[in-house]
Amino acid sequence: MTIGAFDLGYHYGQTRAVRGVSFEIASGEVFGLLGPNGAGKTTILRMLAGVIRPTEGHAEILGIDVAKAPARAKRELGFLSGDTALYARLSALETLEYFARLYGLDDATRARRLDATIHEFGLESLLELRAGALSSGQRQRLNLARAFLTDPAVLILDEPTVALDVVSGQFVEKAIDRARLAGKAVLFSTHVMSEVEALCDRIALLVGGCIADVGTPTELIERHQVSSLRALIVSLHEEQNRGA
Asked: Is residue 50 part of a domain?
């Protein structure tokens, strides 16, 4: 087990955003969180990444309790969230160098990882541009590069292809596939069904902050007797609205 959620719960005031969520993800597995808006996907990812502390239960990264040892856990993962900001005055290259130093990479490792990441995400033409001058899609690619930069064992990605065009989105899909082949554990949320079908070994379906089911895409389609994952999400959305 590389990523573990154990009876996770989170309250925003009187609102229970997440309840009793449990799952485990192995090395070399891509695991997707799928559900309608407001189902709790981002909250779960933030608890696993140590951004927020669970109200109930606990999260583990490589056996490390995220709430008890957040610094140790964060050294093992690359995290991308929808509200991750970049320093507008730094160039793309300076941004990557800054985060490489922040994670304590030595000179040789830093140079190797910078070269590999720049090539992997096609950032060569953006290196001298300030982050604040990049388009939304370019910023997202740079943010993704930052998450992959340290070659972490665990990747937690919240809507990784949001704001990306088709070509940039392919960079992300290929990077996730390479991460799987390298034995990394990848957890991500998305609304793009083609990404789920192409990348996910297993999926957790979320409704109203709870896991409704877990399985492969094929298993879930057959079990819920729907024609596609898209139809399944529509069904979940209707179920969530009925329970609201």
From this structure: no
Full strand arrangement of the beta sheet holding 77-80: 77-80, 154-158, 185-189, 30-34, 202-207, 210-215
Q: How do the residues of the chain divide into helix, strand and coil, expressed in percent and rounded to 5?
A: 40, 25, 35
Judge whether 138 lies within some domain: yes
- How far, in Å, CA of 108 to CA of 93, rounded? 16
Look at the pTM and tell me if it is higher than 0.85: yes
213 within some domain: no
Q: Please tell me the distance from the alpha carbon of residue 169 to that of residue 192, in angstroms, as a whole number.
A: 11
What is the domain extent for residue 89?
83-150
Write the pLDDT tens digit of every residue in 107-141: 999 999 999 999 988 899 999 999 999 998 889 88
The verdict on residue 131 lying in a domain is: yes
Total domains, the chain: 1
Token pair 């000179």 is found at: 107
For 160-191, what is each residue's pLDDT tens digit? 888 788 877 888 888 899 999 999 999 999 87
